[in-house]
């Protein structure tokens, strides 16, 4: 057909009508939801989303990114910040992650046995914060490779007795490239040789100027070992969250990213997912990377079974037909049939790509042998 209404077009390209109306407005076209769009307007919008318009609108429904749609402002509510910890070897990343988890879990959720699922949540001043318990560098590498944004805030750990080191600089560059705000945790302040001023001085050379020195970078002196200063760090994370206003729509089908996954002897494929938008529920038909299934069971970071998981929540699920990879996207579908179709198409594509690589390799080997 040569014309579509805004609502029909929105449905065809998996967007909300309000998003289309907004896009049209920015392109200088005033439209309402039931307005019939002519071919030019349709092509304008399709162009914005990289969708092909021929006879029919063609959208690659096997590309999971197309389901990561924007929500209209009225459906958005505040969500917890997602935080990654980065820094040089031995500067205390693991100790800090453990220390935050231990202090907060014993305070707030007595009896909860923490289990390692690659991410955890703590509560500070009644607000949740999500920490990715995976090496920060790995998370950023995956993000850059796939263009998937996972983390909102980076905590840059710098040991006060060692100062800025090569991987400190690397971490700064990763965070800058991804446009993720940095909070500096000046760690090991309990040590005699600790010198916070030196850390501040050295970081100035990399564009991180402390607020005390007229810049806009938050520095928190702390000790991951004694716990001193950790509450302050959590408060600063909440502050950045308030300024940046991280939001999501809990009333839609879940989309997000795989934090980690493995094959478990008893439970089969087990994947930790970070829900980035929407709410994930037991029984949801889901496509995860190149695999699919139905969410059979969900366990949170405290080892408790849960029935649903909202935005910024990490949750471990079972029920997938295969093991996905860290960094893979996941999308929940309306019905099992669609999830199966998309999942099978994706697994087929992966298989073909894999065979392609293999045949090239064997051809090269063949020539070498000649
Ligand atoms: P990698 O994972 O190897 O890169 O190291 P990391 O950054 O995770 O450092 P880790 O937490 O393993 O800490 C390295 C060493 O520093 C350990 O011996 C910790 O006990 C010690 N450490 C960490 N934080 C502190 C601190 O605040 N004070 C003191 N005194 N020691 C600390
Ligand atoms: Mg470590």
TrEMBL record:
- Carries keyword Nucleotide-binding? yes
GO cellular component entries: cytosol
The organism that produces this protein has a lineage beginning with: Bacteria, Bacillati, Bacillota, Bacilli, Bacillales
Provide this UniProt record's keywords sorted from A to Z.
Cytoplasm, GTP-binding, Initiation factor, Nucleotide-binding, Protein biosynthesis
Where, in this chain's numbering, is GTP bound?
87-94, 133-137, 187-190
One of the entry's Gene Ontology molecular-function terms is:
GTPase activity
Protein's recorded name: Translation initiation factor IF-2
Please give the function described in this protein's UniProt entry. Answer: One of the essential components for the initiation of protein synthesis. Protects formylmethionyl-tRNA from spontaneous hydrolysis and promotes its binding to the 30S ribosomal subunits. Also involved in the hydrolysis of GTP during the formation of the 70S ribosomal complex.
Domain Tr-type G, first and last residues per copy? 78-247
Cytoplasm: present as a keyword of the record? yes
What's the superkingdom here? Answer: Bacteria
């Amino acid at each position: 057909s040569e014309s579509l209404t805004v609502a029909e077009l929105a449905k065809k390209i998996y967007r909300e009508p309000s998003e289309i109306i907004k896009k049209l407005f920015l392109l200088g076209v005033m439209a309402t939801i039931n307005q019939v769009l002519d071919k030019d307007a349709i092509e304008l919008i399709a162009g914005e989303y990289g969708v092909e318009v021929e006879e029919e609108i063609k959208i690659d429904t096997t590309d999971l990114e197309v389901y990561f749609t924007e929500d209209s402002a009225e459906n958005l509510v505040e969500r917890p910040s997602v935080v990654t910890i980065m820094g040089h070897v031995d500067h205390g990343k693991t100790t800090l992650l453990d220390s935050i988890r231990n202090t907060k879990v014993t305070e707030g959720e007595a009896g909860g046995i923490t289990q390692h699922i690659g991410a955890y949540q703590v509560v500070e001043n009644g607000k949740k914060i999500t920490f990715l318990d995976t090496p920060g560098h790995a998370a950023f590498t995956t993000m850059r490779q796939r263009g998937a944004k996972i983390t909102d805030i980076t905590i840059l750990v710098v040991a006060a007795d060692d100062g800025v080191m090569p991987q400190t600089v690397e971490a700064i560059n990763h965070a800058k490239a991804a446009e993720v705000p940095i909070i500096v945790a000046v760690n090991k302040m309990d040590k005699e040789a600790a010198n916070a001023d030196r850390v501040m001085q050295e970081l100035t050379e990399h564009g991180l100027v402390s607020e005390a020195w007229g810049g806009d970078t938050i520095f928190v002196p702390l000790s991951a070992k004694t716990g001193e200063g950790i509450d302050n760090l959590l408060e600063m994370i909440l502050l950045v969250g308030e300024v940046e206003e991280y939001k999501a729509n809990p009333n839609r089908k879940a989309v997000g990213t795989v934090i980690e996954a493995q094959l478990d002897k008893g439970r089969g494929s087990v994947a930790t997912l970070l829900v980035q938008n929407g709410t994930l529920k037991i029984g949801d038909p889901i496509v995860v990377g190149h695999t699919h299934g139905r969410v059979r069971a969900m366990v949170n970071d405290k080892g408790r079974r849960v029935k649903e998981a909202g935005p910024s929540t990490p949750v471990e699920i079972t029920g997938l037909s295969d093991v996905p990879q860290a960094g893979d996207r996941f999308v929940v579908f309306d019905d099992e049939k669609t999830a199966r179709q998309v999942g099978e198409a994706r697994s087929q594509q992966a298989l073909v790509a894999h065979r392609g690589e293999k045949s090239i390799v064997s051809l090269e080997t063949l020539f070498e042998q000649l």
